[in-house]
Each structure stands twice: as C-alpha cells, then as structure tokens.
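Problem 12. The chain below contains 646 residues. Write out its predicted structure in token notation.
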Amino acid sequence: MRRRDYLAGLSSGAAASAAGCSGLSVGGPGEASGGPPRLSVDGNWLVDPDGRRVVLRGVNVVDPWWGTTYEDVRGKDYWETLRLATDAEAGWHASVVRVPVEPRTVRTLGLDTLLADYLDRAVEVTRERGAYLIVDYHAVERYDTADVDRRLRRFWKRVADRYADQTHVLFELFNEPTEPSGNGLESWRTWRETAQPWVDLIRDRAPETPIIVGSPQWTSMTRFAPEAPFRGENLLYAAHVFPSWERDTWEVNFGDPALEVPVFVTEWGYANADGERYEPHMMGTTDGWGRPFREWLSTHPNVGWCAWTFDSHWTPNMFDHDWDLLGGDDYMGRFIKEWLRDGRDEHPVDGDATPTAAEGAPAKPTGLLVEGETPTRIDLTWNEADGVAQYRVAVGERVEKLSGTATKASIRELTPGETYRFAVVAVGSDGATSDPATITASPPKPTEPAATIPRAVVAPEVDGAADDVWSDVPSHAVDRTVVSTDVETDMVASWRALWDERALYVLVDVTDDDAWTDSARSWNDDSVEVYLDPDNSREDEYDGENDRQLIVPRGWGRILSGSNSAGDTEAIEFAQTETDEGYRVELAVPWDALGVDPTLDHLMSMDVHVIEDHDGGKRDEKKAWSATADTAWQNPQTFAIVRLGE
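Solution.
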C-alpha cells in the first residue's frame, strides 16, 4: 500500500527525504560521554539520574551522508546545522537532535565508514552542545522480510555496541514500518512478535540506552502500546503526527496511550505551500494546525518531540535555501523556534525545575450542563480546568476520550426519549482520574412524521418514465415559496418516494413550460434539489457524515452535490427527462451510500426543492416542500421528518 493512498482513507504521518556522501572523522567510540546524563523510563516519563522528570524537545536534521554530500543543494554545512539547532545564543534551544540514517546510506558507505566518519561526529557534536541524540534507522518499508531482518540486525549490532556508553544517545529502532497492517491490535501484535528480537538484540548490547519503538502504518498505531507493550525496560513509543491526522484523532491515537506509557513524537511538521515537494499529508498552517497541536500537547507534558525538518531542502522545511527562517501562517520555522524558546526552562537536567505535572488526580469537573439536544444527540459542556490531560465522557459502556483542552462534547446515536446518565471524569498526565461529574438527560422525542414513505413491492426502474410502480404512491406538493422575484412563474412541482432494503427512490415531477437552456450553466438554473438526513440527527449544520444535498440541474445530464453535502454521488442512480408539461427527475440512493440500515418505522428527515429560471440570470423562484426559507443547504433542521412504512 502506498502511503498517500493509506492517508486518504485514514490519516497518518511521516516525512519526505532525499539522497546523499562524504566523510569526516572524530574521536573513537565507546567513551563515557561526559555530556548530558543518562535518561531512563519511570512510568510514562523520562527521568534523569536524580529522578527528575525530563521532556525532550528538538528537531530532525537530514541524513548525514546526504547532508554532507549535497551541501550546495542545502546551502549549509551539515555540522554547522547540528550546532545551530543547539545554539542558545542564536535563539535555538533544542535539547535533542534526531539524526535519520537511511538504508541507502548504509549500503553506499558501509557501516565502518558510516560509523567512523558520520555517526561518531554527530555523537561528539551533540555531546559538546549538551544535547541528546536520537540515532534513527530511517527505513520506510515492509518490516516482515528476510532482507529487513538481516539489515536491522547488522545495523543495530554495530551501533548498539559502539554507543552503549554514550549517556546522551537514544536509539530509534525502525522509523516507519509500513505493512503488514490493517487489523488493529492484531497488526500491532504481529509487529511486536517480529520486532521484539530486534529490541532484545539492542538491549543485550546496550543495557541502559533508551529505545524508541515505532509501529506499522507509518508509526501511527501508538494507541495499542499500553495494551500490548514490548518486553523490556527503558522503552518509549514513537508517534508521527502530521496534518493528515485531524484534531479529533490526536487524543485517542496518541494522547490516551501517553497516560500509561512514554510517547515520543519523533516526527511532526507542516507547510502550506505549492509545489511537488510538499506531499498532501504535510499540508497545514500555523493557526489551523500548528497552534492547536501545541495546545493539545500541552495537556500531555510527558510527551517529547522532534520537529521535521531542520533543513532548507527536506520537507516540510524550516528554512529557505539562504537559511532564512520561514514563518507566518504557511511555514513552521518561527513557530518551532518560539516553542523551543518558551520551553527551555522546562527541562530539569540543566536546572532545578520541578516536574511539569501536578501529582495526584485532577479535581472533579465542575459546571456540567446540557447545552443542546436533538432526538439523537446530547451536547454537554463543563468548565475549563488546569492540569487535565484528558476528559472521558461515559454513557453506559461507551466512552468518549477528549483532550484536556476540551470543554464540551456531543454524544450522538442516542435513542429519542430514552433517559441516559452521562459521567465526565478528568484524567491527569499520569493517568490518575478524578471523581465523576454526572448528569441525566433524555434526547427529545421527534414530532410526528410529516409523511410516510411506502415500501416498494417492485423496485422502480430509474429511467425517468414513472413506471406503474409509482401509480399508487402518495404525492406531496412542493409549494412553499422560499425565493421569489417580480417575475411571474408557472412552476408546479410534487414528489413521491419509495424504499426497499437496497435504496431510497425519489420521483419529482415539475410542470414548467418555460425552459431555459444556455451553455453558461449556473447554480441558478432550473433544477431539483433533494435533501436527506438519513439518520435523523437533525443538526443545525451538516454533520459531515451522511447529510446530503443532491442537485439535478435540468438538461445537464449529471447530478451534483451541495457544498456542505457529505460523500460523492457516484453510487446514486438518476435520470432526468423532459415531459409534455415540464420535466421529471428520478433518483435511487443506496442505503449503503448513506450509512443507514433501513427498517420499518425508521425515521429520517428530507426535503425537496425546485428552482425556476426564465432567462439565465438570477433564479426567479424556488419552492420547497418543508422549508420556509432558503436555508436547507446549510441547516438540516429545516427538513421534515418522514417514516419508512409498509
């Protein structure tokens, strides 16, 4: 599976790279570093030898072979790059630098040259700068092949032996194992079974060095680490978070596991720029993604991070070719520098800082109220509080997990009229939970349906011909004017509908002998609009899941989807034909496309609108079956409730 194909369906994270050669040597390996002290894992935190909690924040540089070989492309000496990232006088306060070593670099140089001329020097530079170093085996590939096993064992035998005594060095096992994946916890267990021997190999040679462990699907399965952890001590679990991960996915995938195990975001970043170098999963802005990411991560103070990439060429890049720092809303360079500066005193190794999270459980949430409701949804709100990593909202056996910055939750898929007890607890960064705040509420029962849609004995053929199956189906007048002008119109319209286990069928007849046709097509043209809220969620805005606005313009030969409508129209059958008195539209909308399992007495909401245009300018009239104003395109609460009947 290609990465971008996977990201289109799920959201994940990773980074781009390039290619690279050259050699520089430093002092011999194996010496006690004399630099930053050895870190170890205590619960879900890294700690120093005195037991003080440590959070590492820093940057990724590029592969050292590529970086030294292509200095003209990058515009800067590679070793100057490492020094700049840790230069407090220049305003950079990275406490950790991640050095990715690509498999092609190992193949090109050989391990002897890689270690002696590149990694030794990176170890020495970061030690001198008082920074930690993550040596990352930067593979992005399947993990279950004999070739990968051979390469990983060979690499880590040499690297672990050579740097075991370097107290400031951490190892990252495998940057982004891609596949096998796809079945959740079992995929994680398969990965663990394969990768545990590699972890054991490193641990045998480097008994105290912290090891960062990634996961399949481009290091996106961190959520399974607490349930099925690797065997061994001083293990952290990597996460790669890019804008393809929507905000509401961060907590369950990365924040929730950080309450139990140490999580390290070894790659994150964004850019909002044109060009082939910027992959879709990287596209984001400072205000739209970067600042919310920082705010969310502030609720998990034990989670360290390395931004990707401290470079002018590898993307998303923090500098231009002249090594001027990029910023504003479109680039992350200034934002990351600001974040590192603001957090420079939160690292206790170089001072007397106290732990960043308060001991003990957070206080019970206060101010819990029902803020809104629909027949299938209850909206809860509560007061903002400090020191909360996560809120959990329990309804029976269901548990919603929200970031500690949240102050509201919408609980959906409820049964109208049923009484529910909602419990909200606050969770601290160490996983301790507060007493629950509780409230009882009942979603309102919907009003009586405005229409009943009969079941089809025989499915109509979608050809616009009004088969005999439609002859006894009740007709509903589309006669509420929601847009009018001074132009007199003669439009009359009605709709009928049927259903079966496969689809919802809608037939709309329009009497209008004043057809307007023009090559300059417009959304103001004659058309039929069918609005559907198939699960009757009745939000005041489109839910992004299955609320639909389906538009069939007269004479266009195609069906369109409204600007707020969910999904595409590929699965929907339709026909539009001219009649003696006007035109007819017929639709078959599969329930599968709507995400609904139809049953007798199922309630849904819908509306039908018809537009008339005389001269190709503004619409002259718009009529609706249910709505009293032209707002159905943005507010599904204007739809009428209908019932699926016999």
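Discussion. The chain has a mean pLDDT of 90. Students who got a different answer should revisit the alignment rule from Section 12.3.
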